[in-house]
Design a protein that fits this description.
single chain; alpha/beta; Rossmann fold; six-stranded parallel beta sheet; 17 strands; 45% helix
Length: 496
Amino acid sequence: MVQLNAKSLPSIAMARGVAPKTERVIQFGEGGFLRAFCDWMIDMANEKAGMDAGVVIVQPIGRGMVGMLNEQDGLYTLILRGQVDGKPTKDTRIIQSVTRGLSPFDDFDGFLALAHQREMRIIISNTTEAGIVYTGKDSFDDRPQASYPGKLTRLLYERFVAFGGAKGTGFILLPCELIDYNGRNLQECCMKTAEQWGLSDAFKTWLTTENVFCSTLVDRIVTGFPRGEADALYEEFGYKDNMLDTAEPFGLWVIEGPAWIEDELPFKKAGCNVVFTQDVSPYKLRKVRMLNGAHTSMVLGAYLAGHEIVGDCMADPTMRKYMSRALFEEIMPTLDLPKDDLEAFASAIFERFSNPFNRHLLLSIALNSQSKFRARVLPTIKEYVARKGALPPILTFSMAAFIAFYCGEKKEDGSFAGVRAAGNEYPIADDQFVLDFFAGMKGKPAAEIAHAVLANADFWGEDLTKTLPGFEASVAASLGAIFDKGAKAAIAEVVG
């Protein structure tokens, strides 16, 4: 069987798209997410909007996959599969936007040479949430610098010197790391690095005036290399692909920046779901409240009711109604984006949660639920009360489900576990102070447990028994129903 590469590509019947002639993008990170998200969008824009942008992938850590990528001349297959408009869909595409990979650990001079390519215009990154951090440990003379901001600052300085700080020689930077205001944080890290290294004021001015650090929000579930299916897919394709990648069809990129960058990033013209905005905050709030909030408010009760994966919940009419009421009746009324926009996002959530290719375990989502509930659900409850003058029934019940899930006991090995109605144990994983608190709750009356949890200001930053009138009584009643009747019957009651 042939290997996917530039030589074999002409003989592959399913190959489509346009190979770029010009390298315009430097990308820090070769992982499955960027390849299934950003590089796919660039590939689409090359074909449908004439972007002509080749991507050079820079390996941000010592050990990585650029060698394997180069063996395939940057080519790889991406499969997008799931549900769209209620119907199963699958799209298979050979991505041609990546021209080559480069390791600054093996070829630092080649890395710096990227700054001398005048056509280079865009820098993309996904170096994990810990990647955008100023460490103070990088040196200008390191080859390469250890941190991403260190490598980036060195590359930007090389660019500044190569073109004399001329206007129009800066970059559009699109960090995809999952931290708040990633663009602003990245710029701040670069400025601190420049100051540490004693670089000129002229460079620092060029850094801030000629480069646009866009804060972004990215959203796509990427399931990566399909290990159990790879051989069968190779037989279907007629070639082998060691960089094969899979993801869901849904993808959203929100990019905060000046209006003119939309002309340089023609993703919308290519049909991609990209929002250009002056403020990423409402879209981040929408994702946290709707997508993440729907997960957190549903999974604990659903697991206690006997479900294992998110897809199971979507196939259960009661759980589907539970989530529908939470999203459309309780979460959406607390957000200020246009109703059509919110409804479309909510509908997409249902399709994403129903995707049979994403076997998202409820227990995986349940990890560290205390902090997740505080960030994703509690603000919606408070906002709903402020706007409606009443408690949101489903989200209030979800607090009781959280408490019931966490009412476990400490095992001899130091771990914590709860017990479902069926009798099977399940692990409870969270910060130690959370587990220690709940270890003393099992067996106490529902009202006593509810009061202790809601009054715990270390959990919520406030005493909820005082700041949310009626909340304690409602949570206690729902917790009692879960204890007495089981989660399945209690959920059916609250849904009505």
